[in-house]
Design goal:
10 helices; 295 residues; alpha/beta; two-stranded antiparallel ribbon; 49% helix
Length: 295
Amino acid sequence: MPERHDSGYRLLFSHSQMVEDLLRGLVWPGGMPEDLDPVWLERGSEVRVSAWLDRREQDMVWRVGRRRGEPDFYLLLEFQSEVDPQMEVRMAVYRGLLHQDLVRSREISRWDGSPLFVPVVLYNGAERWLWGAEIPGSGNSYLLIDVLRDPLPGDPDNLVSLLFELERSRSPEALGRPIRRLATLLAGADGADLRRAFCVFLRESLLPGRFPEARIPELLELEEVRPMLRQTVLEWTREWERQGRRDLLVRQLERRFGPLGGRDRERVDGADSERLLDWAERILTARSLDEVFGT
């Protein structure tokens, strides 16, 4: 499940709208420096090969165009479901290999200084992450963003903030607000691709993890999630009611007639709520199990 969850993040953050909201809402929550304000975003290659043919693959790289002719900077995104104390070393390797690639492709000159890298780790695990520094763009550290614990961006319509709300929701009711807002913000043709990405994330990762017994349709739209969850709650309520009646009936039958055999136990386990209630009423006058079950 963690691999599927990380894949869901890679899918979502392959959209520039998510990356820009990440930069504005969490990397620079007090407002982006004017010279860093992105004019455009371009996805970069995530596979690097060193001079010794050592292959290293990073989750995601974005090249960010800047205003006033300033050199571009590079956002290095890493998605983690588990704590990695060696992340500092990994990020240093990624930065070095990316720098080599930029020189090799003549995107920068070998005589230029190192470009600005902004390494960011998005972490959504249960254990607290105790490593890393909160200095975006530092040459010796990375910015850790704890999905489950860090303060949410001030803008309630920030898409990354809504993603974090989904992650922190533990009930169908709590999922309602971010899903409703996402459906509104991503309505129409312009938001169709990202809307589908959120649907895939919900269907394949988040909802199965939260509600493993829920029936999730293969073709799912954001507008369908809330009524689907309401129906799931109703089904769970009916099932809990049936289980309660079944357990009570078994106790009554065994107190009256002794331990149930395998066949009688199967009858009780397979009965619906109405049949269980009918049998419970018959116990009052029945002289045998056959009379209870009507056989």
